[in-house]
Design brief:
The protein contains 10 helices and 5 strands. Helix 9 (183-198) links the parallel strand 3 and strand 4 (202-209). The protein is of the alpha+beta class and 245 residues long. Strands 2-1-3-4-5 form a 5-stranded mixed beta sheet, sandwiched between helices. The radius of gyration is 24 Å and the shape is elongated.
């Protein structure tokens, strides 16, 4: 079957190859994507319909397949492929961030947002790094509950020892409410900080995200200074105590 839109499609492809996506409107970007899945229909109309229905290209790619098929011209296969793009993009970003050291706070926050995106339960993610802050491994802990994560400092320490990590970065999300740490968050963080310090592993940061994507960083708020002072005081007191002969 002849494709009456082939000339238009070819012009869009050539334009993309020449200048990239910067000059494209959102519906034109969707057109380029739809070319791959819908060979014989006017994808310009379908792309406009998607933007009209969802408002933005971000909302289109965040939509579930069953929501996408509500738009005329979008079948199950096309809806699946559009929904898949978002998860592939997150996986790409995660892979890119894992290939370089997490030294910069903006990189750490960006990486954390990628890991915790679209989570419906309160979830804790711990990233283990080597002495150059390169990615070594990751552990995720969740209780499938909106309000609590069931994990102990001991478990995190055991994982750090297993991976022979030099440092740890910890993230978790408050699904509902602000990112302000709870009393339980503070207690957990201090216990983990002290225990990791005792085995020469650095807790680089603990970042808490709120429902509006705002965050609270223990490092940025200087919370680790007090924990280190307490750790040093406890160790000093232990050394001063007499030992049984």
């Amino acid at each position: 079957m002849k494709n009456v839109n082939q000339g238009h499609r070819q012009r869009l492809r050539e334009r993309y190859l020449a200048v990239g996506l910067d000059s494209f409107k959102d519906h034109e970007v969707l057109e380029l994507l739809l070319f791959q899945y819908i060979p014989y229909k006017d994808t310009n109309k379908i792309a406009h319909a998607l933007i009209e229905h969802f408002g933005t290209i971000a909302n289109v790619l965040n939509a579930k397949p069953e929501q996408l098929t509500a738009v005329d011209g979008i079948g199950e296969v096309t809806a699946f492929n559009l929904a898949l793009l978002r998860d592939v993009w997150f996986r790409y970003n995660k892979s890119m961030l894992q290939s370089k050291p997490l030294n910069d706070m903006s990189d750490i926050v960006n990486y954390a947002r990628q890991l915790l995106s679209a989570s419906k339960d309160e979830r804790m993610v711990v990233v283990f790094l080597d002495n150059s802050h390169y990615f070594m491994g990751i552990r995720e802990y969740t209780s499938h509950n909106e309000n609590v994560v069931m994990v102990s400092p001991r478990q995190v320490v055991m994982d750090a020892m297993e991976l022979k990590a030099s440092s740890v970065v910890m993230f978790h999300s408050h699904i509902k409410g602000k990112p302000t740490p709870s009393v339980d968050d503070d207690v957990f963080t201090e216990r983990l900080f002290v225990t990791l310090t005792g085995i020469n592993v650095v807790l680089v940061d603990h970042i808490v995200f709120g429902e509006d994507n705002s965050y609270y960083s223990y490092l940025e708020h200087g919370r680790f200074d007090g924990m280190m002072e307490k750790f040093l005081d406890v160790n000093a007191n232990r050394k001063q105590q007499p030992h049984d002969k």
